[in-house]
Specification:
The chain contains 29 helices and 20 strands. It is of the alpha+beta class and 884 residues long. A seven-stranded mixed beta sheet has the order 4-7-11-10-9-14-17, sandwiched between helices. It has a three-stranded antiparallel beta sheet with strand order 1-2-3.
Length: 884
């Protein structure tokens, strides 16, 4: 190979005539092509001119004429389509050849070609190996041929690009297979004859299987006792309950009898999907972001900045020595695919997501991998470990051995390993994954059996009231107060010590608990639970991972659901919503029994309870609801809360988790400022600010230490005000959230919001209600292929991931030149134009916005504030005209 090919793009000299170096270079190129039989197609040659772009074949004379007339296609320094390999040694002149562009391709045809090479790794490049391709490689070559095959003569779109666009349309718009087939047949019919367009979804799916994104169907017991896998693959009945594996299905026409599995789970192997992240040029370099980005001491922008990440590196230096090894998070949650009106059916997807990616990519939908579909219709509960077996086995393999992976950003092969950092789930699923009982007095997994929870005498439910003074400093005055909390009680205890993974595993092993996948485990574990009642239900399958015991936080408390539950309890109690408030007759009876609050005691003459200071009267509730009804939010910030208000009963209904999140952190201090006493409002506001600081995108370790000290005080202030019935397990778990954030980093990577959105997307993909899991599986595989292709066909394939935002100005609007930079931003018109004069309040809001956001006004802020407070609007306008 000639090391200096700059002549390829210096076709003419200063006078406009063909350059002699270019002419001799074209001769050199033609001689090279003729000497390479692999680049010939009979007597035809791929033409690399700027118009043909290696997509058309001509004889040598026409190719030479095209090159002299049009020049070479951009960045074709390495003649890969004409017999040269991508391999080069370190002594070659890389300045004369942009190898990164060449290896990945720049024109649409090269992108299609390299997509296939990326999917199969470098060993699939036909120019790098002289051996005959194996069956797996042949599938890649078939796709390679389709990427170079035009739909018809003269068409610039290839067969693969057309298939990718069709799959994208099916995925984005939820086409049924019948709709896809009919559309494909229509398109094929209107194209010229002898086109290569595939006219069925089945044919397209078979063709795209070469991308290597598989799914495995595994038979399982109808009761969820076992899966027919590994050494049990040949069994005909369940070894636990003896239920048959198959049912007999008879063909009505032929009377042929066929065995059909009673139930199946679907497993999506993880390793190929992680390899795809390094095979794609869109994500390969980003997978090293966690190690390359700037890290500021005491500041956490990402999980990789956390103490847990660094502690894992110290405990496993061999794993951390390769920065391309992958850290994972796992989420499990169930949903009802038929809604509340359909039949009872519980579907449980298991989702895995990598944490190597930067914040703007991490936990996004396209980088969440559906790993397991647990079959319905029943909730698997503690038997979820049965369905996790293939994933845990693969995670063990990825930890101990790894898989050889091609890193396209560095052009290297490396042994990729992976580790699961933690799980993310709501509180019921927390119990299913960890094996810890999350109901009753032992609900808190941090406090475990060293709790102070008890049942209310009249309310009958567990409460953690007055359970937080022990988290206060030793000299705090609340500890010795006998009047504000439980009558006559002084607290001298301290919080329980933090248990390590070794401590937890030692406790489980000392109890003798077994894995749910072992024979006789159900009866054995039930006997131990009845005898000891320690809170453990089983030995979780995650303990099979060799590194699981070294982790500080193995299962995360979900801030999303905790915040929602705390908000609903406090808001419903303040608004005194019937049936949902924690302040009722039983609660008042418990207050009289536990606390010294004579102002809340029953009036013996009327036998009625007086109004509490923490609840609003009818006038206050009406004002709050009216204010919420008229409140306006930025587009996309929150849902329309005006539609969630019942003005007859003065209550809110149908609020989503994100609505509660916004209300808790932004609106609650404002909504109740004028209606609650100062001590109540201050305590509620401090709780609101606690959640706001906890869920910040960037966390400081010092701030989390401060929150660890503040939250017990906040909870004690609330205990002084609200009834004991308010303080269930959700309110208690607030004590442990700052610790988890300090150890594991920002909560945005460890809460359920992204996974709940992904579950909603899966639910929308279910079109065949008779085959819920199969419908989700097909839709997910189509989306995977569509997303993978969209990384390559940026111009040809438009997917939802590349959709224009609804408020995007596109830079095409009219801009206004003037003295104020705030008016220079482009915009675009929307809808029909009309003229309306601003009222005084809107006019003042516009003025304030200009003053707060215009840098030209900043030096005169003091004068502006003075004039706003002492002069009229007309005088102020005159002042601005004089000033500017």
């Amino acid at each position: 190979m000639n090391n200096n090919r700059s002549w390829m793009y210096e076709r003419t000299d200063e006078s406009g005539f063909l350059n002699s170096l270019f002419i001799s270079g074209v001769e050199e190129f033609m001689n090279h092509v003729i000497s390479q039989p692999t680049s010939m197609n009979g007597t035809s040659i791929q033409c690399p001119c700027t118009k043909c772009k290696n997509r058309k074949f001509w004889n040598s004379d026409i190719v030479k004429l095209h090159l002299l007339k049009n020049g070479f296609v951009r960045d074709y320094y390495i003649w890969s389509r004409h017999g040269e390999s991508y391999i080069f040694n370190g002594n070659e002149d890389q300045s004369s050849a942009n190898y990164s562009n060449v290896a990945r391709g720049t024109d649409g045809n090269n992108l299609m070609y390299n997509m296939v090479i990326d999917a199969g790794g470098p060993s699939f490049d036909p120019h790098r190996s002289e051996e005959m391709p194996n069956a797996e490689a042949q599938n890649i070559y078939n796709m390679l041929n389709s990427s170079e095959r035009e739909l018809y003569d003269g068409c610039e779109t290839s067969q693969l690009a057309a298939m990718a666009q069709m799959l994208s349309l099916k995925s984005d718009h939820h086409w049924s297979e019948a709709c896809y087939d009919q559309t494909s047949q229509f398109i094929k019919g209107i194209l010229p004859k002898d086109n290569t367009f595939l006219d069925s979804f089945y044919g397209t799916k078979k063709h795209m299987e070469g991308l290597g994104l598989p799914s495995i169907h595994i038979d399982c017991c109808v009761n969820g006792c076992m899966i027919y896998w590994n050494e049990d693959i040949d069994m005909e009945s369940c070894k636990f309950c003896s239920k048959p594996r198959y049912k007999i299905r008879v063909n009505r026409s032929t009377r042929e009898r066929k065995k059909v599995a009673v139930q199946r789970m679907i497993y999506f192997p993880l390793a190929p999907r992680l390899q795809r992240l390094y095979a794609s040029p869109t994500t390969a370099a980003h997978m090293r972001w966690h190690a390359d980005h700037y890290k500021e001491d005491g500041v956490m922008h990402h999980c990789s900045d956390s103490e847990e990440w660094r502690q894992f590196d110290r405990a496993h230096p061999l794993f951390s020595s390769e920065v391309r090894n992958v850290r994972l998070g796992l989420s499990a949650d169930g949903f009802q695919p038929f809604g509340s009106s359909g039949k009872q059916y519980s579907s449980w997807p298991i989702i895995v997501t990598p944490y190597n990616l930067p914040p703007w990519m991490c936990s996004k939908e396209e980088y969440m991998f559906l790993s397991i579909l647990v079959p319905g219709p029943r909730n698997p509960k503690q038997k979820i470990d049965v369905f996790l077996q293939p994933l845990i086995s693969e995670l063990k393999m990825l930890w101990e051995v790894g898989v050889e992976t091609w890193d396209t950003s560095l052009k290297q092969n490396f042994q990729m390993r992976a580790a699961l950092m933690w799980t993310i789930s709501d509180f019921p699923a927390y119990s299913m994954l960890s094996g810890w009982k999350t109901a009753g007095h032992l609900a808190c997994p941090h406090c475990a059996h060293e709790h102070d929870a008890y049942n209310l005498k009249h309310g009958g439910k567990p409460t953690w009231f007055d359970n937080h003074r022990k988290f206060l400093p030793a000299n705090h005055p609340f500890r010795k107060n006998k009047n504000w909390f439980t009558k006559g009680k002084v607290v001298s205890e301290f919080p329980p010590p933090i248990r390590t993974g070794e401590d937890v595993l030692q406790e489980i092993e000392s109890l003798g608990l077994m894995k749910i996948t072992e024979l006789g485990s159900e009866e054995h574990n039930a006997k131990i639970i009845k005898t000891y009642n320690y809170g453990w239900k089983k030995r979780s399958i995650f303990w099979d991972l060799p590194y699981w015991r070294t982790l500080s936080i193995r299962h995360n408390l979900d801030v999303m659901h905790i915040e929602k539950n705390v908000f609903e309890n406090i808001f419903n109690t303040i608004m005194a919503i019937e049936g949902k408030t924690k302040d009722n007759a039983k609660a008042r009876a418990d207050i009289a029994l536990l606390c010294r609050r004579p102002e809340l005691a029953i009036d013996e003459s009327t036998r009625k309870y007086p109004k509490a200071c923490y609840s609003l009267d009818k006038k206050g509730k009406e004002a709050v609801c009216k204010w919420l009804q008229d409140l306006k939010f930025p587009d996309g910030y929150v849902s329309n809360m005006g539609r969630c208000i019942d003005m007859k009963k003065y209550k809110l209904f149908g609020m989503k988790s994100h609505d509660c999140h916004v209300f808790m952190q932004r609106l609650m201090p404002i909504a109740f400022r004028e209606f609650l006493p100062n001590n109540v409002w201050e305590a509620v506001t401090e709780l609101s600010l606690f959640f706001k600081d906890l869920t910040s995108a960037t966390l400081k370790v010092s701030d989390m230490c401060r929150l660890e000290e503040q939250i017990p005080v906040i909870l004690c202030k609330l205990e002084r005000i609200f009834p004991p019935a308010l303080f269930d397990s959700m309110e208690h778990l607030l004590v442990h959230l700052p610790y988890e954030a300090r150890i594991a980093g920002p909560v945005q990577y460890r809460w359920m919001y992204p996974f709940e959105r992904f579950l909603r997307h899966l639910k929308n993909n279910i079109k065949n209600k008779a085959r819920v899991e199969g419908s989700m599986c097909n839709a997910y595989l189509v989306e995977e292929a569509s997303t993978f292709c969209s990384h390559y066909f940026e111009q040809h394939v438009q997917t939802k991931h590349r959709k224009v935002p609804r408020n995007d100005s596109s830079g095409g609007g009219e801009s206004f030149e003037g003295n104020f930079s705030i008016f220079s931003h482009p915009g675009r018109a929307s809808g029909c134009a009309n003229v309306r004069y601003l009222d005084d309040r809107e006019y003042m809001a516009a003025h304030n916005y200009v003053l707060l956001n215009c840098p030209e006004v900043a030096p005169y802020t003091e004068y502006v504030l003075f004039f706003l407070n002492h002069i009229s609007m007309s005088m102020f306008n005159s002042f601005l005209l004089i000033l500017f």
